[in-house]
Design a protein that fits this description.
The structure holds 2 protein chains of 2 kinds. Chain A is an all-alpha fold. Chain A has a single domain, classed as MetI-like (MetI-like fold, Orthogonal Bundle), CATH 1.10.3720.10. Chain A has 12 helices and no strands. The longest helix of chain A has 37 residues. Chain A is elongated. Chain B is α/β, with parallel strands linked by helices. Chain B folds into 2 domains: 235 residues, Rossmann fold; 75 residues, no CATH class. Chain B has an 8-stranded mixed β-sheet with strand order 6-7-8-3-9-10-12-11, with helices on both faces. The radius of gyration of chain B is 21 Å and the shape is globular. Classes of the chains: A mainly alpha, B alpha/beta. At the A-B interface, helix 1, helix 2, helix 9 and helix 10 of A face helix 2, helix 3, helix 4 and helix 5 of B.
């Protein structure tokens, strides 16, 4: 076989890779069109780095454990304590940096559980539209969606032991129905498309139809919703921790720090403002990123 | 007939609507022999597609429908089959080309990936063959439908291709595995006339080459004349006439068939001279007699009271009309 023929063959058999690469390039171009999404991506990367390398970056890592230093208590922001200290003399900056850990962990775990569950149930309910499966899944979803989300999370978290795990469980329980609804709507529309019917005609298995015909066509709204939801999950988690149902002291969390600091407003303003800015920073970042991802998948604005 | 690959006996498909049952297919008898090309002709909404969809049982399950009768594929009844056997038939024996080629391909995968899926699902390839062999199969299938540069086509997404290309790819998909029966549901509808003609020729050539059977669903007698050996004329859920293509055109018997032939506009001008007036009847609680009776120029008294039975006029030429029954 001549050399060019071999090359030709290689070209043919690696066609999957090439088209994927090209797609990524297109996606990146569309993502970069909006400068705010680049800002968002930067913020998100910074947040992740802060969370991962918190013990290295934080100036006083020991301040997140049992610690008190009454000589330096309630110090306003200065050169050695950039964000000031709280009433026990703990460095606010270190505690804010460590709070990123809990916030991101919460977002990751909640979405990692609720998205697959919600998407799967939505796919099944949408594809088996009209059967008892759809009724069972969708009416359960409706029950969850009928309750105000924060109230539901509150009531679940208050039944369980107050710690990070139970607040994650609470938020996960209230989160999956949104994905089920989203995917259900799309799956019901897609199941009547000719390409799904054609797959049935060819004799494709139900799994193939669900996961290779219907799911890939629902992916872009799912990804967009995930990106936009990260901020929301962090916010709900902060709300829970604000009323004492999240991470317990001495481990820091945004909501808990704000709630501690609010008792000393406005004299010790740095105790509240800096954790609040931390939440604003991380949520802003994920929302910009989410907008960027939405633009990326938006076929209408090519 | 012993060599019949598909034999439909007295098939009835009734859709459940809020007004009552819509009798969309009402007692259809139909058979296709091995290697035979058969046309199913009728105007829009007369139940052609419904009949063929019930062959593979892909009618929307959320609509309550009651299929009755028998659909025998090689003497096995498809309607009574369990899910696994049905899947085997769908995978290996019968394939169907749908009306809308653009909608029949999944927009998020390349044509190549979808073709490979079809090959894999058919389970009709050598288990040991590598991905490269499968790709070669796909490439030769694309070459068969007269597309140059198959490598590029395999890498393209459906939206990058034209309608004619997509339809050819659909044909390639249905022919890539050795299936015995191909059901083509108006494959030319979405295309312009020149491409339509190409597609039809291609289809005939490919079917004849490999000795498969073909059911061609169309609303155009012209297309059927070009392509098939035998034509079933369907009107409002009934087969009104069946004949060999030559016989049907030289001697159409049923008034509906005559009307269909007359309503083709001629290129020489003069427009449509005569045609069929009126519309397809309501399928819910239709009149007891012949369904064509209200539109029929030759209607008699008996036509509105009784349903005509098919009578054989000459060899293989059957018609369901009281004009030809001796009563």
């Amino acid at each position: 076989m001549s050399n060019s023929a071999v090359n030709e063959q290689k070209k043919v058999h690696s066609f999957l890779k090439e088209s994927t690469k090209e797609n990524l390039r297109i996606y990146w171009y569309k993502f970069g069109c909006n400068k705010l999404s680049i800002v968002g991506l930067t913020i998100v990367i910074i947040s992740i780095l802060l969370a991962v390398f918190a013990p290295v970056i934080a100036p006083y890592p020991q301040h997140v454990k049992e610690f008190a230093d009454y000589n330096n208590a309630s110090v306003a922001p200065n050169a050695s304590y950039l964000f000031g200290t709280d009433i026990f003399g703990r460095d606010i900056l270190s505690r804010v940096i460590f709070s990123f850990r809990g916030a991101l962990l919460m977002a990751i775990i909640v979405l990692a559980i609720s998205v697959p569950v919600g998407v799967f149930l939505g796919l099944v309910a949408g594809y088996y539209n009209g059967s008892w499966l759809e009724i069972a899944v969708m009416r359960t979803t409706d029950i969850f969606l009928a309750l105000p989300p924060l109230i539901l999370a509150l009531s679940i978290a208050s039944v369980l032991e107050p710690n990070l795990t139970s607040s994650m469980i609470a938020v996960t329980v209230m989160w999956w129905p949104w994905y089920t609804r989203l995917v259900y709507g799309m799956a019901t529309a897609l199941r009547k498309e000719y390409f799904v019917k054609n797959a049935e005609l060819i004799g494709a298995s139900r799994m193939h139809i669900l996961f290779r015909e219907i799911l890939p066509n629902c992916l872009s709204p799912i990804f967009t919703k995930i990106a936009l939801d990260v901020g929301w999950v962090i916010l709900i988690g902060a709300s829970l921790s604000y009323i004492g149902l999240g991470e317990q002291p001495p481990t820091p969390a945004f909501g808990q720090m704000i709630s501690d600091g609010s008792k000393y407003m406005p004299d010790l303003w740095w105790m509240t403002i800096f954790p609040a800015l931390g939440i604003a920073f991380i949520i802003l970042g994920f929302n910009f990123l989410g907008d960027g991802i939405r633009d990326m998948f938006d076929r209408g604005r090519q | 007939m012993n060599d019949a690959i598909l034999n439909i006996k007295n098939l009835k498909v009734w859709y459940n609507t809020y007004k009552g049952y819509a009798k969309v297919v009402d007692g259809v008898n139909f058979h296709v022999g091995t290697g035979e090309k058969v046309g199913l002709v009728g105007e829009s909404g007369c139940g052609k597609t419904t009949t063929m969809k019930s062959v593979l049982r892909v009618i929307d399950s959320s609509i309550n429908h009651i299929p009755e009768g028998e659909i025998l594929y090689r003497d096995k009844d498809i309607l009574k089959m369990n899910y696994n056997d049905l899947q085997q038939i769908r995978k290996k024996s019968i394939s169907m080309i749908s009306q809308a080629p653009s909608a029949a391909l999944n927009p998020v995968f390349t044509v190549g990936e979808q073709l490979l899926d079809v090959i894999r699902y058919s389970e009709q390839y050598n288990k040991k063959s590598s991905k490269k062999d499968l790709m070669d199969m796909a490439i030769s299938a694309i070459k068969d439908v007269m597309i140059s540069d198959p490598e590029r086509i395999l890498k393209s997404y459906p939206h990058q291709l034209s309608g004619g290309m997509k339809q050819r790819i659909c044909i390639a998909m249905s022919l890539v595995t050795p299936r015995e029966l191909l059901i083509a549901d108006e494959p030319g509808t979405a295309l312009d006339v020149t491409i339509q003609d190409q597609i039809h020729r291609l289809l005939r050539a490919l079917v004849e080459e490999k000795g498969r059977s073909l059911i061609m669903i169309t609303h155009s007698l012209g297309v059927a004349r070009e392509l098939v050996d035998r034509i079933y004329v369907m009107y409002a859920g009934n087969i009104v006439e069946v004949a060999k293509t030559k016989d049907l055109f030289s001697e159409p018997l049923h008034p509906y068939t005559k009307g269909l032939m007359e309503c083709v506009p001629r290129l020489s001008g003069g427009g449509v001279t005569t045609g069929i007036y009126g519309y397809i009847p309501n399928y819910i609680n239709p009149a007891p007699g012949c369904r064509f009776c209200p539109r029929c120029p030759d209607a008699m008294d008996i036509c509105s009271k009784e349903k005509p039975q098919a009578v054989e006029i000459s060899d293989g030429h059957k018609v369901a009309c009281f004009k030809y029954t001796n009563c």
